[in-house]
Amino acid sequence: MFFPLLIATLSRCAGAGGIQITHLNVPTEVRNGSSYTILDCVYSLKPDEVDTERGLVVKWYFNNGPSPVYQWIPGMKPQDLGVLRGRLNVLHRVTDNVATMHRALYILNPTTDLSGEYKCHVSTFEDEDFMTKKMVVYATEKKFELTQSKPDPDSVRIACSAKGLFPEPKMALYKTPSGSKLSMPDVEVETTAKQGSYDIRAQALMSDADLESPTFFDCEVKIPEVRYAVRKTIVYYPGIYELPSGKCCRRLWRHCSARVACSV
Ligand SMILES: *[C@@H]1O[C@H](CO)[C@@H](O)[C@H](O)[C@H]1NC(C)=O
Hints:
mainly beta, Ig-like_dom, Immunoglobulin-like, six-stranded mixed beta sheet, single chain, 2 domains, binds 2-acetamido-2-deoxy-beta-D-glucopyranose
């Protein structure tokens, strides 16, 4: 993971005096389904390089691939190649300068498969420089549910599920009896990788005897790589159980002590 950073640092020394990439403006995170995103490669040229564009070529590489996914030679039409073929607005100009106008990638509708390392490589006849940066295109949950069920009158099962996230999500359950947030013990979490995304579910079985009334259960799903997080809460009243008739009872020892509303 730190490898590209090291390369970028080393290339700094090599390009002394000539062409130099001063900024690689690649967004670290982009939401799947955004209308577009721009990856810009800002470089400085010596005055004589600007005038004649002495062999200037701008190339972008994806995930260390051997061939470029974009290439532009000033005076010529930019080319979208490989995974970026048909995914770019190649007419977009990031500056009005003939030596820099098409240096950037203008990606239309970025999707999760375009997550990865982007390397900008700029060269002239005499010199070259490159820099690499990672971009993550993340997808948020399509469906997010937190439910409670009673496998028997004395306990409750809390189940949480979220679908269609990318990259890999994490899930946690919490209970908050009186202001304090407790991470729940014995939570089973299961992650399933589907085509290009992840489903995740967590569940825990709690005994009513261990719970205050009411107890709030929280489910949090997050994508650690992009600091995305959402949560849901439900309230549970331990000691209340449903009779076959559909009415509800407050439990006292083994008896129904009072008829109560099923949800308060
Ligand atoms: C990303 O967005 C595209 C549409 O822009 C959609 O078809 C695809 O299912 C989404 N991917 C995920 C993992 O949500």
